[in-house]
Amino acid sequence: GPLSERPLMEVTLGELHTWISTCDFSPQGLLGTVQRAWNSYYAKYINVRRGGPAGISMLLAGYCLLSYSWNYQHFKRHRWRKYH
Amino acid sequence: MNLSFFDQFMSPSLLGIPLILISTLFPTLLFPSPNNQWISNRLSTLQLWFLHMTTKQLLTPLNKKGHKWALIFTSLMTFLLTINLLGLLPYTFTPTTQLSMNMALAFPLWLATLLTGLRNQPSASLGHLLPEGTPTPLIPALILIETTSLLIRPLALGVRLTANLTAGHLLIQLISTATTALLPLMPAVSMLTTSILLLLTLLEVAVAMIQAYVFVLLLTLYLQENI
């Protein structure tokens, strides 16, 4: 289909910057993107009849990574010191 | 080496958004609203089972009027349990280690139970200040003691949760620092400390669950006296 309506996984690398220029970066647009992304993740990994621990574990691992990046400015000052 | 052991309880901000906001809102992602299929997915089934068990456990002792409190007790229980358990993951922030948040939860709920009792059945609520069968000379002292114990309840609720979680996190950090520091010097002692750390982590998981349950259970008990 036309470039602006294809989902991200079907866009080739060469036309990536064109695709980004057709994106809607208003607050409603971003919110819609986040909602679609979450719904597709939820439908694929969690909302299955016989799911396993993988869906929630990926979410928790992502949360740990997010917390790490949020605290990074603080961590980078932790160094092994010879004398305290 | 950490600059100080209390740094883990600071709430850092990135781009103006404090981490405590994300830590408080993240549990909503873990509890998707069940759709109207009977069996949708394993996560919903587990959560519904857990909610039924908790609701039955908390609300059986209450009379019919107390069942209006079902939603707030169950949601509070789930909220505290999730936040406490999520705080045990590495690098995460636990909002319930902040006294401000626990007092904000404990004080209004306790006050609500007290005012419910004073409004609907004032003499019965005041009657709780004097246990049955006290010898007559002791009555004034006992009323003072019971009033103090009544007024200290919100403080106890908030501080209990804060202190348990803060102490647990601090212990984990201290023992893991000891393990890391001992590893080049005395590896055998370091292994012993690692086993202590594993046991402590199990304890902390238990404490996280128990403290959430105790918080809500005490509120149901305070409600039972007053409704």
UniProtKB/TrEMBL annotation, chain A:
Subcellular location: Mitochondrion membrane
Keyword check for 4Fe-4S: no
Domain of life: Eukaryota
InterPro entries xrefs: F1F0-ATPsyn_F_prd
Transmembrane segments: 54-72
GO molecular function, one term: proton-transporting ATP synthase activity, rotational mechanism
Predominant cellular place of this UniProt entry's protein: mitochondrion
Record's keyword annotation contains Metal-binding: no
A single GO cellular-component term on record: proton-transporting ATP synthase complex
Cited Pfam families: WRW (PF10206)
GO biological process: proton motive force-driven mitochondrial ATP synthesis
Keyword annotations: ATP synthesis, CF(0), Hydrogen ion transport, Ion transport, Membrane, Mitochondrion, Transmembrane, Transmembrane helix, Transport
Family membership noted in the UniProt record: Belongs to the ATPase F chain family.
Protein name: ATPK synthase
Organism from which the protein derives: Sakesphorus luctuosus
Lineage of source species: Eukaryota, Metazoa, Chordata, Craniata, Vertebrata
From TrEMBL, chain B:
Gene3D superfamilies (UniProt xref): ATP synthase, F0 complex, subunit A
Listed Pfam families: ATP-synt_A (PF00119)
Organism domain of life: Eukaryota
SUPFAM superfamilies on file: F1F0 ATP synthase subunit A
Membrane disposition: Multi-pass membrane protein
Any one GO MF annotation of this record: proton-transporting ATP synthase activity, rotational mechanism
Transmembrane portions of the chain: 12-31, 69-89, 101-118, 138-158, 170-190, 196-223
This protein's record includes keyword Membrane: yes
Record keywords, A-Z: ATP synthesis, CF(0), Hydrogen ion transport, Ion transport, Membrane, Mitochondrion, Mitochondrion inner membrane, Transmembrane, Transmembrane helix, Transport
Swiss-Prot/TrEMBL catalytic activity: H(+)(in) = H(+)(out)
Location of the protein in the cell: Mitochondrion inner membrane
Record-level GO cellular component terms: mitochondrial inner membrane; proton-transporting ATP synthase complex
Family, similarity comment: Belongs to the ATPase A chain family.
PANTHER family recorded: ATP SYNTHASE SUBUNIT A
Subunit composition and interactions: Component of the ATP synthase complex composed at least of ATP5F1A/subunit alpha, ATP5F1B/subunit beta, ATP5MC1/subunit c (homooctomer), MT-ATP6/subunit a, MT-ATP8/subunit 8, ATP5ME/subunit e, ATP5MF/subunit f, ATP5MG/subunit g, ATP5MK/subunit k, ATP5MJ/subunit j, ATP5F1C/subunit gamma, ATP5F1D/subunit delta, ATP5F1E/subunit epsilon, ATP5PF/subunit F6, ATP5PB/subunit b, ATP5PD/subunit d, ATP5PO/subunit OSCP.
Name this protein carries in UniProt: ATP synthase subunit a
Primary gene name: ATP6
